[in-house]
Amino acid sequence: MRKGSQIVRIAFTYIGTVVGAGFASGQEILQFFTRYGWIATLTIALSTVLFIWIGIKLMLMAHTLKATSYEDLNRVIFGPKIGNWISLFTMIVLFGITTVMLAGGGTVFEEQLHLSYQTGLLVTLVLSYLVLSRGIGAIMTVNSIVVPIMLLFSVVIVVYTWHSPSSGNWLRITTDDSLGKIWFAPFLYTAFNLAMAQAVLVPMGAAIAKRSDLYWGGLIGGAGIGMLLLSAHYALSAQMPGIAQYEIPMGNIINRLGSVPQIAYLLVIYGEIFTTFIADAYGLSLQLQQRTKLNRKFLLLSILGLSYLVSQIGFKTLLAALYPVFGLISVVWLVLMIWRNRKRAV
């Protein structure tokens, strides 16, 4: 029973780390998959395989190396010089994403709860510190609460779409986009999310005692991400092409279900922002501690404080400026990971 519980916690933490605000809103799925029509079902399958394969590989390698942070892992995989540069870049990216997620939390409070943006930032910062100061176990516990709610919403949306006259769109819609663009999208999407997920997957892999728990947790977690992608794609396809005009496409579907699902969905969006925020801040604090030898709680407070200052720029501005660059360089990381793993078996 305890073994099964540990596997589920690993799987939920993996899912919660990958799934963020863009996923919950439906915008990521729309841009990377649904817009390409029926073939997106195949590209989602490719992403799922990559999430399972590389996710398991990251955790097992971290377990073998007893890696303190993803920096240890990158040095082994890519060598000291290249590994150091990749880790430095990852650190910059992680800080960028923490500011984006924090700004997203403030935006949820401002636009959905009609409270001030600053209130959203401060509430998120306080809750994050309470979780982060308790380590990886607390992060896994938070994900064990948030992720089941996300999965439940996924089921509700699929059932709702099932009765729609256009529910078969996911197998019928065509696109004029080139095959190169279509098949590059899942690599870009998976690369970015896996490059960032290593911030939690690596320390979690090192902390878990049994390799078998990591293997099954990675398998279930990667498959769970694929299931969430497919269910969202299925629901969004049924509303195409009109749904593409909305900034929060999934919210448009949820609004048709009534006020209670709307409130629950708002909590899901905030929960997904929060889990991604604490995951990236935690990974960043571990790497900085490894490099500076400073007290971890001091580093956490510094990271949260700097994130607060940068988040004043705003969610949309940060998102538009940072994500395209991060995504392209993450593809390089994924290619190197796959190529190096051909030579370095765990």
TrEMBL record:
Transmembrane domains' residue ranges: 7-24, 36-56, 85-109, 115-132, 144-162, 182-202, 214-236, 263-286, 298-315, 321-339
InterPro entries named among the record's database cross-references: YkvI-like
Keyword Cell wall biogenesis/degradation in record: no
Key words of the record: Membrane, Transmembrane, Transmembrane helix
Domain of life (superkingdom): Bacteria
PANTHER family hit by this protein: CONSERVED MEMBRANE PROTEIN, MEMBRANE PROTEIN
Name under which the protein is recorded: Transporter
Organism: Paenibacillus silvestris
